[in-house]
Write a structure and sequence with these properties.
Elements (H helix, E strand, L loop, with lengths): L2 H17 L4 E5 L1 H5 L19 H4 L2 H6 L1 H16 L5 H9 L6 E5 L5 H5 L4 E3 L2 E8 L6 E2 L22 E5 L8 H13 L2 E5 L11 H7 L3 E6 L11 E4 L2 H20 L1
Helix pairs in contact: 1-10, 6-10, 8-9
């Protein structure tokens, strides 16, 4: 069997598991958004920011040391994200949500592209860069922040308590949102298929989700250009770009659903 035939066989098997799933979990990482032109976090120090350490720009300590610099870095990232569009991988996952019995998307990405693509059932483990929140104790959240609409002190201050505002993302050394994390673990324990896309498998606790799902008996499908830390545990590894493989996968699932309906 040549590589093309082997790939087609794996694609059809993965599509069958997804089409027949009772509850599908999709877990996505930076690789999905890279195809939209968004650099991964570790590669985000471009242009004016090339000489800065991303860990320094994404920590409470860095914010306390120079809040204006940290805010401006995130404003720069928000602008870059606003200039790109969801790619075929994002759109395929949004379409897949309407094809299966139940699907929940768990993402490590903070760019909001899954929402813009149309995904509805979504858990954001690391927050969302388009939201900002109070750095003080009132925890006020401001949705859909627009830097273009704001003029004044940088960083801005919370209207409720006067404390500085910060991006509503998880920084180094911070705990993930407890509610989101607990829900993700519970879903992993109770799904029957997990599809992992565009993640290195290095970032915990997201990397443990397919392990939890596998222990509970779920099928584990991975889509990645190259094998990563968790690939050895996958039942099926589809090697390639998510923007190319996911549309093929979802189209096959859709055709299977149509055939089953007669």
């Amino acid at each position: 069997m040549d590589k093309a035939d082997e790939y087609e066989k794996l694609l059809r098997q993965a599509s069958t598991w997804i089409a027949e799933s009772g509850h599908l979990i999709v877990s996505t990482g930076a690789g999905v958004s890279r195809e939209s032109g968004i650099p991964t976090f570790r590669d985000a120090g471009e242009g004016l920011w090339a000489n800065y350490d991303p860990q320094q720009l994404a920590s409470v300590e860095g914010f306390l040391q120079d809040p204006k610099m940290v805010w401006e870095w995130y404003a720069w990232r928000r602008k870059k994200i606003s200039q790109v569009r969801p790619n075929p991988g994002h759109l395929a996952l949004a379409h897949l949500e309407g094809l299966v019995s139940r699907m929940t998307l768990i993402t490590q990405n903070v760019d909001g592209l899954h929402q813009r693509a149309g995904s509805k059932r979504l858990i954001e483990l690391h927050g969302n860069i388009t939201r900002v929140r109070c750095f003080g104790n009132c925890h006020q959240v401001y949705e859909n922040w627009s830097d273009d609409d704001y003029e004044g002190e940088i960083p801005p201050r919370c209207k409720a308590c006067g404390s500085l505002l910060r991006p509503d993302v998880v920084w180094y050394g911070e705990q993930l949102p407890e509610k989101a994390l607990q829900e993700a673990f519970l879903l992993a324990e109770n799904c029957d298929v997990m599809l992992v896309v565009g993640t290195s498998g290095l970032v915990q606790p997201a990397a443990s989700l397919p392990v939890i799902a596998g222990r509970a008996g779920a099928r584990f499908i991975e889509v990645n250009p190259q094998p990563g830390m968790i690939s050895a545990s996958a039942d099926i590894l589809l090697k390639g770009k998510s923007g190319e493989i996911l549309p093929q996968l979802v189209a096959t699932v859709e055709q299977m659903k149509k055939n089953a309906a007669g």
